[in-house]
Amino acid sequence: MNTGAEAIKESKRAYIxxxxxxxxxxxxxxxxxxxxxxxxxxxxxxxxxxxxxxxIAYFKRYFTSYRPYLADNFSSDDNEQPEEPIEDEVLNS
Length: 93
What we know:
Elements: H1 4-21, H2 27-37, H3 49-62, H4 86-89
Helix pairs in contact: 1-3
């Protein structure tokens, strides 16, 4: 059973997954961007969902150079493991 805090954290992770990773933005650049904005910026708990939405919109609008080639430009390897969950790669839990 998810507590309210866990449900909010999961909402933040899902939003980052959808808006940054699935759209092909560089997760390391996004993490660095968040870290540049506030102390512990890479910690998902240091942001509320409204703040994340605002910063993601800003990042996407002004940092388009951080966007790598889209996934269809990469060759697929059948042995590749799926990308790690958002909490392990983009933001600290």
